[in-house]
Automatic annotation (TrEMBL):
Protein's organism: Flavobacterium circumlabens
Presence of keyword Transcription regulation: yes
InterPro entries: AsnC-type_HTH_dom (IPR000485), Dimeric_a/b-barrel (IPR011008), Tscrpt_reg_AsnC-like (IPR019888), Tscrpt_reg_AsnC/Lrp_C (IPR019887), WH-like_DNA-bd_sf (IPR036388), WH_DNA-bd_sf (IPR036390)
GO BP term (any one): response to amino acid
Protein name: Lrp/AsnC family transcriptional regulator
Amino acid sequence: MDILDEFDVNIIKELEKDGRIAFSTIATNLKISNTMVHQRINRLFEQGIITGIKPILNEKQIGYDWASFTGITLNKDSDSERIIAALKEIPEITECYFVTGSFTLYLKITAKNHEHMRKILYEKIDNIPGIAKTDSMVELGCAFKRNISL
């Protein structure tokens, strides 16, 4: 049995177009009842399929012109929980992933300019005990960003 049926997929697609859309408008657009929309969206939240509806910021419009993808190598992988807790305290780190290969963690860092990025890397991240090294690639622009296709 599929987790999402046709109604769920269409409701999600409506929310992706505009997260502020009224449930009644979704119901009208999909020719289903308002109650069904409410029940489906509540179930999608309860199942953890939809984890939130929040604004997507355009970082450049608010003065954050630089971004990097930064791999982190740890002295000991067993320190990862403590190091992740320290990384969470740095607001410019917007994403953190466990990865395989040369790194233990992979970060997305957003900064106002190259000097701000230098301070984040050298004064904040490099000073976290247990980080052996970092390796960064500067982001030159986003070609596209999207959810998984339903």
